[in-house]
Amino acid sequence: MGTKAKKLYTDREHLNQFIHALIHDIKALEMMLREGMVESGVQRIGAEQELCLLDASWRPAPWNLDVLDKLREPHFTTEHSRYNLEINLDPLEFRGDCLSRM
Fold first, then answer.
1. Element (H or E) spanning 71, and its range?
2. What is the pTM of this model?
3. Rounded to whole angstroms, how far apart are CA atoms 77 and 49?
4. Which helix (H) or strand (E) covers residue 86, if one does?
5. What Å distances lie between residue 71 and 51, 64, 74, 81, 88, CA to CA?
6. Going by fewer Cβ within 10 Å, which terminus of the chain is more open, N or C?
7. Nearest to 2 by CA among 50, 49, 51, 62
8. Pairing mode, if any, of strands 84-88 and 76-78?
9. pLDDT in tens, 61-81
10. Which of 39, 49, 52 is nearest to 102 (CA)?
């Protein structure tokens, strides 16, 4: 979205930064599993929808913080840039009429 294209980094510094972030995420997952922070014995389902904000000329509009401030709705959150929003449904236990309720 927007005028900047994503870069493909191939130099050693960016590779090291990526690997460091990946290891950090893996350690966080290991800690969550070790401390029983991942639910078991129940299945849940949820959904999210990502939105791109556009101005009257159909160009990306960097208004997500303004929109969130006006909405004051906890199901809406920021995404990767100021041009995007995300809407999240509350997770439901995956049984019965959960798909109809979604």
1. helix 64-71
2. 0.59
3. 10
4. strand 84-88
5. 14, 10, 9, 18, 14
6. C
7. 62
8. antiparallel
9. 999 999 999 999 999 999 878
10. 49
DSSP summary character for residue 41: S
Bridging pattern class, strands 44-45 and 48-52: unpaired
Measured in whole angstroms, the distance separating CA 78 from the mean position of its chain's CA atoms is 8
Tokens of 56: 């009257």
Rounded distance between C-alpha atoms, residue 21 and residue 16, angstroms: 9
Rounded CA-CA distance 75/47 in Å is 11
- Predicted local confidence at residue 81, as pLDDT: 86
Q: For tokens 């979604």, name the residue.
A: 102
Strand-pairing partners, residue 60, are 54
